[in-house]
Amino acid sequence: MKMGSDIEKLRCCGNFLESSKPYFAMISLQFGYAGMNIITKVSLNHGMSHYVLVVYRHAFATAVIAPFAFFFERKAQPRINFKIFMQIFFLALLGSVSVPFN
């Protein structure tokens, strides 16, 4: 009888953790934003250029996110042929042209 109640408690705890994942993700994201704001404030107060800070922030984000994209998404993407390459090219061209107008 005790073993059945232990399994029921584990199942209940597992359901709670599964349903709480979005909340934990948002709390983690808020901690990340707070850390980024603190690091930005400290580095700018010590005289770092705004441009250098943007480059470092993008380089760090790329280094953190790129392995996830490489390992988890590499089989889900289609092969790049000439048509897809031209679509990417024109979207990038139009995106860089429309930035000053926003």
TrEMBL record:
Molecular function GO terms recorded: transmembrane transporter activity
Record flagged with keyword Iron: no
Nuclease recorded as keyword: no
Alphabetical keyword list: Membrane, Transmembrane, Transmembrane helix
GO cellular component, one term: membrane
Superkingdom of the source species: Eukaryota
Name of this chain's protein: WAT1-related protein
Transmembrane segments: 21-39, 51-72, 84-101
Organism expressing this protein natively: Senna tora
